Amino acid sequence: MFLGTYRHAVDSKGRLAIPARFREQLPTGSIISKGAEGCLQVYGPDEWVKEQSALQLTSESPAEERRLTRMRFGAARECEFDAQGRIVLSADQRGYAGITGIAWIVGVNNLIEIWNDENWRRIGEATPEEYTRIQDQVAERRRGK
Amino acid sequence: MFLGTYRHAVDSKGRLAIPARFREQLPTGSIISKGAEGCLQVYGPDEWVKEQSALQLTSESPAEERRLTRMRFGAARECEFDAQGRIVLSADQRGYAGITGIAWIVGVNNLIEIWNDENWRRIGEATPEEYTRIQDQVAERRRGK
DNA sequence: CACAAAGTGGGGAATGGTGGGGAAAATGGG
DNA sequence: CCCATTTTCCCCACCATTCCCCACTTTGTG
Question: Which chain A residue has its CA at the smallest distance from B107's CA?
Answer without folding.
Answer: A74
